[in-house]
Structures are given as C-alpha cells and as structure tokens.
Amino acid sequence: MLSKWFIHRSSIQNKFLISTICLILVPLGIFGFITLQISKSSIESQVSQSNLKTLGQIAEKTDMLLDDVIAVSNTFYLNDEINHAFTTEIMENSYEEAHLRAAFDRLLTNSIYSFGKLQYHVTLLGLNGLEQSTNPLYKNIRMRDIVNEPWFKMAAEAKGRILWITEPIPGLMPTEDGGRSTFHAVRISNRFETGAPTGLVMISVNATTIRSLYEGALDEQREIVIIGDDGRVISSQANGKIQSNVKDRSYYWKIQQYESGYFIDRENNTEQLISFQTIGKTGWKLVSYTPTKVVLSSLNQIQFIVSIVFMIVVLLSIGASYVIAKRLAIPIKRLYRDFTRVETGDLSVRTPIHQDDEIGLLTRKFNQMVARLNELMQGITVEQQQKRHAELQALQSQINPHFLYNTLTSIRFMLHKHSSDKVDSVIVALVKLLKQSISKHDELIPIEEEISMLRNYMYIQQIRQGDKLEVHYDLEDDIMPFKTIKLILQPLVENAIFHGLEPKLGKRTLWITGKMHGGDIQFEIRDDGVGMESTGQAGVFLDERSGDGQAAHRGGLRNVHERIQLYYGAKYGLTVESEPGVGTKVLVLIPAWYKWKEMNE
Length: 601
Prior knowledge:
It is a multi-pass membrane protein. The chain crosses the membrane at residues 16-36, 304-325. The chain is built from 16 helices and 18 strands. It has helices at 2-9, 12-77, 80-87, 95-114, 150-157, 207-211, 252-257, 292-295, 297-343, 358-417, 420-439, 447-465, 490-501, 538-541, 551-568, 596-600; strands spanning 120-126, 131-133, 163-165, 183-190, 197-205, 223-227, 233-236, 260-267, 270-278, 285-291, 444-446, 469-475, 483-485, 508-517, 520-527, 536-537, 573-579, 583-591. A hairpin with a 3-residue loop joins strand 17 (573-579) and strand 18 (583-591). Helix content is 52%, strand content 19%. Strands 12-14-15-18-17-16 form a 6-stranded mixed β-sheet. Strands 2-1-5-4-3 form a 5-stranded antiparallel β-sheet, sandwiched between helices.
C-alpha cells in the first residue's frame, strides 16, 4: 500500500526527498550504527582483557600471600614445643607456662620478621586449656567450648590440612574495627597414636592485608571484590559489602562455571562490565566491576561527535534535496496550475521560463500550444458568433412574416364588422407594433417595451374578437427594467389565441403574468382553450415534423424556445402544460439580466 502510494500518488518532491533519505541517509545511518557497535565491542574486549590481566596479577599476589599464611601456620603447627604444650598439663604461673610463652613469642617474632608485610593474628587453643593469641578479643576462649561446632569437625577431618574459613567463626569473637578478619587458616593438631585432636592453630588474616593487593588497581569507578566458594564476599574496598552474598545474582553461575572470563550484566542497578579470575590455591574468585558508561566514555564522546556530524549531514542532505526537489517541483506545479486554467477556458495563460533544461523546453512548448489554441479558438468564436447571428436572423424572419400575415388577416375581417375609427385605431396599433418589432435592430429590449408590444397586439385581437376574448394581466413592476430578447411573448399569445382559444366555442380567457422567480424572471401564458395532447419542455416535444394539425402551433413555440436557449443557454426556455378540453399553460423562464455584457458574463 505504501509503495503504491509512493509510486503512483506522491509528488515528485516527496519522491525525491524520500529517495534521498533511503539511498543516502539510511545506508549512512546503518553504517554508522554498525561501526559504533563494532567499536563498542572492540573497546569492551580490550578493557576486559586488560581487567583479566590485572586480575591475573592480583591472583598471583594472592597466591603468594596464601603461601605466606601457610608458612606462618607451619611455623606454629609443626613446632615440637607447641605440640608438646597441647598434650601437657600446664599450671598457671609455672615454669612450663613461662617456657611456652617464650617459645610462642619467639616463633611469633620470627614470623613477623619473615613476613613483615602480612598482618595477621595467631591463636593457639588446646584441649588441655592452653590459650595463646595475639588478638586480645580472643581471651578467655576455651577449645572445649567449640569442639562441637561444624567448622571444627571439618577442620578435624582435614587431618592436619589447612581449612580456609571465610565466614564468621561461631564461638569466636569478631576482630577489630567492628568487622571481621578477611579469612582464617585453621588446622587441628592430632595425637599421633589415636588421631584425636589436641589443639587448634588458627591464623586470622587482617582485611587490609589482602585489600592492599588490589587497591592500586582501583579507580573511582572500578570495584574489585574477592568472593569465597560459598558466594560470600571475602574482601572489598567497601567494608559494608564484606560477608554479603552474591549467590542470588543472575551472573553467579557464570563465575562459578568458568575459571576466568568477562560479560555484561547489571549490578547495583547499573550496567557493568564484569571480569573474573580464579585464585588457584583456594578457588576463590576475583571479580572486577566496571560501569559500561566508564568503559565506553571515550566511545560516547566519539558517538556524540559522530551523531552531531551525522545530524549536520542529514540536515544538509535534506536541505539540498528539498531545494533541488523544489526547483523541480515548482515549475511542474506551475505548469499544472496553468493547464488547469487552460482547461477552464483561459487561453491567455503564459508560463514564465526560468531554466533551459527539459522542464524549460516543456514550458516553451506549452506556451506555444496555448498560443496556437487561442488563435484557433478566436477563429472558432468568430465563426460561431456569425453562425449564431445568422440562425437568429433566420428565426426572426420566420416569426415576423407569420405575425404580420395574422395581423393583416385580422384587420381584413374587421373591415366588415367594425367602423372606420375602430379599424383606424387598429392600424395605428399595428404601426406602433411594427415600428417596435421590425424597425429596431436591437437584439435586447426592456421587458417594459416587450409588454408594450404585447398590449398593442392584444388590443388588435380584442377589437377583432370583441366580447369573446377576455385578457387578465398580472405583471410585477420589479421585472420591467430588465432586458429580454424581442418577441418572445407575442408569438406565444398569438398561438394561444389562434390554436387554443379560437377553436373554442363561447367565451375565451387569457391570463398573462410575469414575476421574479428565484433570481430569474418567469412569464406565464395560460388559456382555457381546447388544449393539446403533448406536454413537457418545448424543445423536447414541439416538433414540426409531426403530422398532426398543430404543426404551426408547435413550430411557433419551438422557434421561441430555441431563440431563448441560443441567447441564454439550456437552463432557460419554455415549459408547456396542456390538457385537451381544459387549456394550455406556457411557462417562459429567462435570466434577470440588465445588459448584454452581463449576459455574456
């Protein structure tokens, strides 16, 4: 439907504009969009690879940190004095207690000297009531109080291997700052003979220690966290996130399923580029969050500049297309408008020529065609006017002899019936009538003059018919100034008398009325004579070729009808209503025009 409208109904200007948009702007827009998407993917890939490289380095440092923790744990776990203290009853303030404290301080000092960058606490707990810790918050904690905790049982089942615990340890007090140590390395010391647990060695690493491994890789927009194998956050630069759980995140399964990788997902209601790397010794995950708006900030600037340039190109293209289309469409519209004027009959149209291209050539040919048509139409108009004048003269010549013959016949009869004075008055009336109808050459006369001729004629007929003919006039004064063609009422009255009233026996009546009728003028000639069989518009049924005795009657009506239509057009003329034995009514409709010029208009 749209293609049909575009091909068949849209203007040339619309076709040109739409074609420009489809052939230039749309491909350019698609190319720009694809280019930006490729650039976006490329930048995301580069940033992700850079993040993975950074995370890999942090993972290596974290593994080295874990090696140090293991080394510290080995220092205490493998020490004979510590293991002996786990199995020996030591009295408070005894030599054995002093010896144990000295050994503990020595081992701690050596560890601090060897691993000075590592911030940690060492806690030793024995079933025999031994308690040594560098964390003052762990005072008065007894091993017998925690042996039934699930984490303790898991550490015992590890048979001396380190159990890495990232969640808060039930039964132990939290560390400083109201937070928690990042993680704990827990080992259970067992009796060699029975494997029964004797003591606990726990290294609690401070949060700041592991955070220092990745703080240098952070900026204001990027965030790095370490997630344990249970989904809890072990370390984050925001303390509020520590121990929060990410298992409910939609992307968690990706992090658990793969060793490393990157993807885009939402975090904190923001679209993020998420990169992750696995820490080898523990299986923990290093996760980096970078908002995509930060990643694509440079691309966004480029995209903004490209968008501005694209909009400028679009505006320039549309503007140029509009100007060109307008230069094409306006001459065509002007030609169409002038064709319409020619169609309505205005042959004076000449379209100005402003260009020498194909449209200019077409305009020049159009002007030549209209000029030639004007010449032909003027010739045809003159020829038609001459022909119409000849036809009117022929019709007039048909009416005047007929009228004169009937009038002289009437006077001849009056010589036998009336006095010479009556005959003289009739002759005077005839002279006036002839003077008005024959001697004047004007085609148009005032209705008042047409009525005067009619009254002279009716005077002659009333003298001739005597008391048998009665005439009633009902003529409005408003119609008298208007002009009409000559002799349109007298022939109708003559036909009414000779063909309608005279064949009737007894008294005869004729009504003549004239009035305004909807902006036109209407006359009515009505008699109560013998009537006719045919009714309707005179030009339709009044045909002289009919073989009945009313041929002359029909011919007179037809001549008047044709004269009126030649002057005024097909809208005007005669309408006849007749019924045998009742009478005939002839309606005459002419326009209410004052002058010949107004009639032409």
